[in-house]
Amino acid sequence: MDRHHPICRTCGVQREPDASRMVCPVCADERQYVGWGGQRWVSITELHAEGHRGVVREESRGLWGIGVEPSVGIGQRALIVPGPGGNVMFDCVPYVDDETVAAVRAQGGLAAIALSHPHFYGSMVEWSRAFGDIPIYVHEADASWVPRSGNVVLWSGDQREILPDRTLVNCGIHFPGGTVLHWPGIDGKGALCTGDIFTVVMDRRWVSFMYSYPNLIPEHPDTIVRAVSLVDPLPYDTVYGGWWGRVVAGGAKDRVRRSADRYLAHVGR
């Protein structure tokens, strides 16, 4: 594990060292922003010295998440999605250390990593290497955003089953490769892990959709209609968003439909 690669303090994405790179390309994009104090870089070693630690705990009964405390970058948490053939880590966090890896191993380890979009790439290559260079699934539409060389598997099309009962769906919200993960859920009624492709808002009866969250740029209505039509045939009753506690618990398919209708009505569609 290399603990010295630079991590952007604002978005939390780890990159290859490049002395000529003055600004994080993820943050320079209009969907993100360069920190008000200017571009700043940090490493896993420095984060450890500052007191950051990995946290592995239940998001809900039987489903474990991985976070960082104090938070780094955007502050997302990843999910350890269980099933036949091993666990999938959906989305990633910037920080990883031996203790956090051991805590994940206690939950069965990881067999694959899948990413929703570039803001949540975190230290994906370090996580992959910590579990034996497991595959990292990124939709090919976001290939240009991959920040480090590693065992990255570019997939194409609308859907890809990466392990039994874990299927990626390219919804295209937020980024062209914006992806959610469908699985049977703990209760067998079906669940979506969505990061902020479908973001679970503070009123957890609803989700919403944006092209840029920090800069408040709305997503195109046609993109939302397509995305909802892709997940609508799938059975799901729960949506797990990208942060601790951001969960639509029960009736999620209807809530996603109504959320899309509400959004479209407000943008005049």
TrEMBL record:
SMART domains: Lactamase_B
PANTHER family: METALLO-BETA-LACTAMASE FAMILY PROTEIN (AFU_ORTHOLOGUE AFUA_5G12770)
InterPro entries: Metallo-B-lactamas, RibonucZ/Hydroxyglut_hydro
Family annotation (SUPFAM superfamilies): Metallo-hydrolase/oxidoreductase
Domain Metallo-beta-lactamase: 75-243
Protein name: Metallo-beta-lactamase domain-containing protein
Top-level taxonomic group: Bacteria
